[in-house]
Amino acid sequence: IVRFLLDNGARVNAQNAAGSTALHLVAGFGTTETARLLLESGAAPDLEDHHSHTALHVAATNGNEEMEEEEEEEGVDMRMRNYRGESPLHCAINGGHLRIASLLLEKGADIDATDKFGDTAL
């Protein structure tokens, strides 16, 4: 369906009323194949929704390991912060997704980064 929509003029970075793009939705509940298709079609992985969540924040929050790995390969900025000042690492830890937290740390996420309340992810 995604391929059909893209082939027929769908805007890959269109945002819904909450500011989410197709990549945000796929980050939470989709497949790596769909994410790759969106990224290859020009999806911007650093676009933020109305809560300043990037697709990587969504993947980390929802425990979508495959999506998290796919976005890292695209060079997504792991320092991006949501409206609470949380990095994707904060989101992974808060969601109990330790495997994703480990992957983020392996890729250089800042373990000492603080949110707007001064809290680190740990």
Q: Can you put this structure into words, describing what you see?
A:
This protein is mostly helical and 122 residues long. 46% of the residues lie in helices and 0% in strands. Helix 2 (22-29) packs antiparallel against helix 3 and helix 5 (65-73) packs parallel to helix 7 (98-106). The chain is globular. The termini are far apart. The mean pLDDT is 92.
Low-confidence stretches: none
CATH structural fold name? Serine Threonine Protein Phosphatase 5, Tetratricopeptide repeat
**Assembly state here?**
single chain
Q: Which CATH architecture would you pick?
A: Alpha Horseshoe
Taken together, the total number of domains comes to 1
Q: How big a fraction of the residues is strand?
A: under 5%
Q: Count all strands and give the number.
A: 0
Q: Report helical residue fraction.
A: 40-55%
Global morphology: globular
Total of helices: 7
Structural class: mainly alpha
The first-to-last residue Cα distance is 40 Å
ANK repeats: 18-50, 51-83, 84-116
Keywords: ANK repeat, Repeat
Protein name: Ankyrin
Pfam families: Ank, Ank_2
